[in-house]
Design brief:
This protein has about 170 residues and is α+β, with helices and mostly antiparallel strands. Helix content is about 40%, strand content about 10%. The chain has helices spanning about 5-60, 75, 155-160; strands at about 105, 115-120, 125-130, 135-140, 145. A 3-stranded antiparallel sheet has the order 1-2-5. A two-stranded antiparallel sheet has the order 3-4. The protein starts with a helix and ends with a helix. Keywords: Membrane, Transmembrane, Transmembrane helix.
């Protein structure tokens, strides 16, 4: 067998190798993209939840009744309504889908200047379908983050009086 005859087989082998490698890299890229999307969704859930908990904390320590909603993120970062300032939110979180702290503020029902929650500005579709929201959230902007209604704190004096003593 002459060396010149083997050149075509080597070329075909290399072409096959390049095609298989390209297909594998495309599949790996798709996997990485999906993993990055899932991570952004987890971050959105965490950051939105932190903001909702900060709003709830702000409402719980409100000196007025009915509670006053915050008017800006600055009030959650540093609440100066009391003698000692409170920090309901550690820092202003960035929306993981937009890369900026450009949350859409959901207007409070009792105070048009205040906000009762936030949502993402992004219209990107979610991989995870959320059935616990009204109609299900199929896009990042559909996922609303509001404080959960809390039960009234029981009065310790009333519970001590109603429990039998030893």
């Amino acid at each position: 067998m002459r060396i010149g005859d083997a050149r075509g087989f080597t070329y075909l082998g290399m072409l096959f190798f390049v095609a298989i490698t390209s297909a594998a890299l495309a599949a790996l890229g798709q996997h990485w993209s999906t993993a990055a999307q899932r991570e952004r969704e987890r971050e959105l859930e965490f950051r939105g939840g932190e903001i909702a908990r900060a709003i709830e904390s702000y409402l719980l320590v409100s000196p007025s009744q009915p509670p006053v909603y915050p008017h800006s993120f600055d009030e959650l970062l540093r609440d100066g309504r009391g003698i000692k300032p409170r920090h309901h939110l550690r820092r202003l979180y960035v929306d993981p889908f937009t890369g900026k702290p450009d949350w859409v503020l959901l207007a409070a029902p009792t105070d048009p200047r205040g906000f009762e929650g936030v949502r993402s500005r992004s219209e990107q579709a979610l991989l995870r379908q959320l059935g616990d929201t009204e109609g299900g959230a199929s896009r990042a902007s559909d996922w609303l983050f509001k404080p959960t209604p809390t039960q009234a704190k029981p009065d310790p004096a009333a519970s001590a009086a109603s429990s039998p003593g030893r």
